[in-house]
Every structure is written in C-alpha cells, then in structure tokens.
C-alpha cells in the first residue's frame, strides 16, 4: 500500500524519499525527467515514475494509489506543476504538503520580477551571457540579437533538454549539459571558460547552489541578473516535511 506520493526531481524530493525509505514508508516518486530520478533509484520502498504529468494524469495517479499524503517537492519556479498538483489533490480529496525553499537575497544582483523585463534589460547590455535557468526558458533568449554567439546555456544532462536547445538553433559549443548544484570553484571555471560578462540565474536557494554561483560570478566581475521567485504560495520547510513523512511509518 502506497503511503506517500512525492512530486519531486529536486534535492528536497530526494530527502523525503530517503527519510521515508528509512522509516518504512512506501512511496511513489514522480519526476519529469530521468535526471531527477537517478538520486533515488537505489532506495527501497520507492517506486519511481518518470514523465511530465498534466492535472488529469496526476488525479488518475492519486485515484489509482490513494496515498495517505501527497508532497509537492517540485522546483520553486515550477508554478504550473504546483498548480496542477494542488488541483489534483483537491479532486481526489487527498491532503497536500508543499515544500518551500528558503530564498537567498544577494545585494550584488539585479532582480527581475518576470522574464520579459529581464530580456529587455539584456537587449541593452553587451557581451556574452551564461544562462542557468534551464532548458524550459531557452526559447526566450532566442529573441536576443546574435543569441547564437552570445548565449551559453547550462541545462540538465538529458536528451530532451539537449534536443530542445539544438532545435532552437543553439550550437553544441554553447550547451553545457550537467546536473548541479555546483561548487564555487566549478562555477568559476565554467564562467571563465566562456568569457561571459553576464550571469542569468534563478534564486534557487542554498539547496540549489545559488550562493556559490553568485560568489563565482562576483569574483570574475560579472553582472548577475536574477529571475525572482514566484510569489510564495505557502508551505513548510523540507525539515518539517521530513518529520511529517517519517510519522507515516509509525
């Protein structure tokens, strides 16, 4: 009997699975890509489901398995996924716990509330651009002048991300397919190798290696543009969520 369904693909999702497996909690772990599944593949009692789900598919998964609890441990910028999870849980009448990642504000950064404003700003700035916002936002940078020469993308090492970026016209020499988070030293080496003047990133918090990216960029004299987190929709820390899922094993 499945006791918990975790929507993840993040470090928070991995932690929930680790605690749940240790406490004897049978879990379904739903992730969008294979990259998000690798960290939990060896855990006992964890059944991994790979693939992007719409609200109807999520609801079907809930009705089929009837977990006692659902956890939304998706990326803090995955607004559509979080909305769909909440809708599916209401439809299936199953309680939901959403995990909120702590923000890290850096005074040395330029913050933007939306991608349109960030792109408008970039159009007035010269030099190379190192983008760490993921393959899902790769399309918007196509609107920049000379994007094929100016923009480097760091994306997850999965075939879908790579194929998507190549189809948009990015050259293989402008794509870095690696899974983070990364140390300050590794970030600095990547930034320096490209010669980029600007870093574009999200506030992925300490868990997502945000401070390390900022320090690396600052050490090289780069400008850092940050796409601010969506408005907080409420939730709990991963520490509280881990204590919560552990109790399901009692």
Provide a descriptive summary of the structure in words.
By secondary structure, the chain is α/β, with parallel strands linked by helices. It has 2 domains: 4-100 and 232-247, NAD(P)-binding Rossmann-like Domain (Rossmann fold, 3-Layer(aba) Sandwich), CATH 3.40.50.720; 110-227, 3-Layer(aba) Sandwich (Rossmann fold), CATH 3.40.50.620. 38% of the residues lie in helices and 18% in strands. The protein has 10 helices and 11 strands. It has helices at residues 11-22, 34-37, 55-65, 79-92, 115-123, 147-150, 159-167, 184-194, 210-219, 238-247; strands spanning 4-7, 27-31, 46-50, 69-72, 96-98, 110-112, 129-131, 151-155, 175-177, 198-202, 223-227. The chain has a 6-stranded parallel β-sheet with strand order 6-11-10-7-8-9, with helices on both faces. The chain has a 5-stranded parallel β-sheet with strand order 3-2-1-4-5, with helices on both faces. β7 (129-131), α6 (147-150) and β8 form a beta-alpha-beta unit. α3 (55-65) packs across α4 (79-92) and α8 crosses α9 (210-219). The longest helix has 14 residues, at 79-92. The radius of gyration is 19 Å and the shape is elongated. The two termini are 14 Å apart.
